Amino acid sequence: MKKEIKTEITIQANPERIWEVLTNFENYSNWNPFIKSIQGTVQVGEKIVVRLEPPGAKGMTFKPQVLAFEKNKEFKWIGHLLFPGLFDGEHRFELIDNGNGTTTFIHAERFKGILVRMLSKMLDGSTLNGFRAMNERLKIEVEK
Q1: What's the alpha-carbon Rg for the chain, to the nearest Å?
Q2: 18, 65, 72, 82: most buried by Cβ count inside 10 Å?
Q3: Which residues are paired to 5 by β-bridges?
Q4: 126, 137, 132: which is closest to 60 by C-alpha?
């Protein structure tokens, strides 16, 4: 089973400014209501430690592997619940320069594995709400 959650928001700033806030992981606890922390060496192939706290759901800490970290463009990782194939999530942040002083911030995740169907309601609820809350707070943080 596969499922994707995809959100986007337009931010009144260039990709460089958004990237600066998005990759200042030490500051996440001050503004990010969904991803409370990211620790470790953030570069392709490395494992990092991520703490998620979706609204209305139990938080979790996991160790995904960085798949992409392209300055001012994309940050992507893949994480697994217990072992690959059970419940895998490929999380992605993408910045698209609109050429008019704004940037489209895409926040998405592709899920696959045998538990996706069972966890679908949670994904459509607290996880999606967490994505949206983070997007809104990122916009506020960048535009202030």
Answers
A1: 15
A2: 18
A3: 109
A4: 126
Residue 28 · residue 51 · CB < 8 Å: no
pLDDT in tens, the chain (144 residues): 999 999 999 999 999 999 999 999 999 999 999 999 999 999 999 999 999 999 888 899 999 999 999 999 999 999 999 888 999 999 999 999 999 999 999 999 999 999 999 999 999 999 999 999 999 999 999 999
Alpha-carbon distance of 25 to 23, in angstroms, equals 5
Number of Cβ within a 10 Å radius of residue 47: 14
- Domain range enclosing 8: 2-143
